[in-house]
Amino acid sequence: MANIVAIVGRPNVGKSTLFNRLTESRKAIVDETAGVTRDRHYGKAEWIGRTFSVIDTGGYITGSDDIFEGEIRKQVALAIDEANVILFVVDVADGLTDMDKEVANMLRRCNKKIFLVTNKVDNSKRINEVGEFYALGMGDVYPISAMSGSGTGELLDDMVAVFDPEDVIDPELPRIAIIGQPNVGKSSLLNTLIGVERAIVTSIAGTTRDTLYTRYQSFGFDFLLIDTAGLRKKKVVKEDIEFYSVMRSVRAIEEADVCLMMLDATNNGLGVQDMNIFRLCERNRKGVVILVNKWDLVEKETNTMRDFEKKIKDKLSPFEDVPIIFTSVTNKQRVFKALETALQVFKNKTAKVATSKLNKVMLPYVHNYPPPATKGKAISIKYITQLPGQAPTFVFFCNLPQYINESYKRFIENKMRENFDFSGVPITIYFRSKERNKEVE
What we know:
Layout: E1 4-8, H1 15-23, E2 41-47, E3 50-56, H2 69-82, E4 85-91, H3 98-108, E5 113-119, H4 124-127, E6 141-143, H5 152-161, E7 175-180, H6 186-194, E8 212-218, E9 221-227, H7 240-255, E10 258-264, H8 272-283, E11 287-293, H9 305-316, E12 324-326, H10 335-350, H11 355-368, E13 381-386, E14 393-398, H12 406-419, E15 428-433, E16 438-440
Parallel strand pairs: 1-3, 1-4, 4-5, 5-6, 7-9, 7-10, 10-11, 11-12, 14-15
Antiparallel strand pairs: 2-3, 8-9, 13-14, 15-16
Helix pairs in contact: 11-12
């Protein structure tokens, strides 16, 4: 089991700033609005050779008018349950508050190692003000400035010292992102797969503002599931917070290996924003599986799976070699098939084709159907190889790469897909001249 550190505390004490400091990222939303971090989300951190996971939680609040208050408290409790070390963050500028005392009372019952972190200690005067927090009875107080990093070294030294020496993070795992517009069922899918209320689920579009990372270890599989905030058109984004959520969703797609792209079946196919999301995956050369969710709500007499699938693939052209699965997350229909398909797409994406096999299969096609001559010059393809990388990329060596047209490139890609399983994966094909080092994609 990995070392997991949860950052908890009342709203606006700097938990997300500390998360960003520890993980050396900007994945947590930092905003003056209290309660911005609604869900838990995960990051990786390293200190003096020890690697661990960090959970950033929503601010623990009671008695507010925020409809998410109860859900946030439940998420904090879940994070504490998952973690083996707790960083309890307070704000020296505000002093000891009644809410800090409530959080401390909750933490005393968790039987976990707790580090009391006094944040925003950025001058000598404030160092003298940390003493009042000893009244919480939580042991030593660690004065830090999450913004500048001051004091975090001593905190991390003592924190990693309590880790189990045999407790280490596994190597990099396949990453599968759950993406799509708001309210298509992304968080519900993740919760169904994990079997726990891992993300807050409400009927409000845009509820999931933060990107969530969950380790999935069931049925012989081991990978990371990523639940992203709903991507939406920029003109629809009204708050700065929502804008940063969209940006993080884009980065989550960039970081993923395979994207489970969810559609709402009741919306009758792919909309403009759905196509933008799909093309983003394609441009970033990510594997894609399309999930048509809420299929149980569609009138089957007027919409068959075959017709719906054809409508989608017509829009996806020319990259139509994409698995499409019809699901009902609420009824748990075909959700594990979606997972199995995503893992198959990951295998397709990371597959390496031996050079000998590649030439044996593809050279007969190019010899029987050579590129059309241009300006009276014949084009001859002599040799094919796959380039190293995280997505299928192939080089066809020929004498005049600059004269190969788009239709012939499409012909080559279609033959590649016919003979090798690249379903769900964009492939890149270059035509290159050894002599002139010319390259055409």
